[in-house]
Amino acid sequence: MVNLNSGSASWPVRGIIFDKDGTLLDFQYMWGRWTLILLEKLKACGGTPDWHAALGITVTGDTVVHDPDGPLAMASNEQTIAILAWHLYRGGLPWNRALSYVSEAVMETNRELEELRPVQPMPGLLLFLERCKAAGVKMAVATSDDTAMAEQHLGWLGIRHYFEAVIGADRVKRGKPHPDMAVLACLELGLQPEETVMIGDTKADIQMAAEAGMQAGIMIGGADSGRADAHILSYDSLQISGGGQENG
Asked: In angstroms, rounded to a whole number, what is the distance separating the alpha carbons of residues 71 and 180?
């Protein structure tokens, strides 16, 4: 057992569960690129849907700003496709054709993203992961992405080996904010939820942690922290102590 410290708060933990996008990987750096590519492909679908409103984004030039409470930030791949297809259906396309168009656009976008591999870690992440590993903290990822895509992104960044489990939305019946992913992650780590904390960048992550009975939910990034037990802007704000060593 080690202590995870943030300011005056401290939690004895055996494990940490991380969200992926905006928590491990810089959200804008990857999903901003993904969004711009997808928007170009969606234009070929015809009609005049408000794709920005559908995704919960604003775009200025090459800069995509997302609503941290919106679909791009929190929806699963399946949900995102359904949201976009609904906008085409609303514009007059049959539902089957709308789904086909959007699904193909998303698949093509994902293939282009694989060629670009636009990933970079959140500030202070790599050193924090090393400290956790050295202290014997078990780590897992719980993400609204599909598991295969999550594994791929973690591999691009070279951090997959830190995590004993990767839980995508496709591995559970109910995604975030329901507790299913956190519960499964704890099961695969061999830990009880109360022995773990959650680190994420959305209110869905914090709600999931609370509903799963995890010891704490820590919000990272600039979004409204909601019911989070702590709010940090970088991993430099977290320290690991105990377990035979101290890391600050």
From this structure: 19
Helices 203-212 & 180-189 angle (0-180, nearest 10): 60
pLDDT top residue among 192 and 65: 192
Residues 6+ away with beta carbon under 8 Å from 46: 91, 93
Q: Are 4 and 136 in contact (CB under 8 A)?
A: no
* Count of CA atoms in the C-beta half-sphere (13 A) of 84: 30
**b vs e for 56-92, b when ≥16 Cβ sit within 10 Å of the residue's Cβ?**
bbebeeeebebebeebbbbbbbeebbbbbbbbbbeee
Structure tokens at 17: 């569960």
What dihedral do alpha carbons 154, 228, 222, 79 form, nearest 10°?
Answer: 60
Distances in Å between the Cα of 53 and the Cα atoms of 56, 71, 72, 128, 192 are 5, 10, 10, 36, 40
Does residue 49 carry a pLDDT above 90? Answer: no
Domains and their CATH numbers in the chain: 2-26+120-247 (3.40.50.1000), 28-116 (no CATH)
pLDDT of residue 14 exceeding 80: yes
Give the pTM: 0.88
Q: How far apart are CA 79 and CA 99, in angstroms?
A: 11
pLDDT tens per residue, range 99-123: 999 999 999 999 999 999 999 999 9
pLDDT in tens, 188-229: 999 999 999 999 999 999 999 999 999 999 999 977 767 899
Whether the Cβ atoms of residue 6 and residue 136 lie closer than 8 Å to each other? no
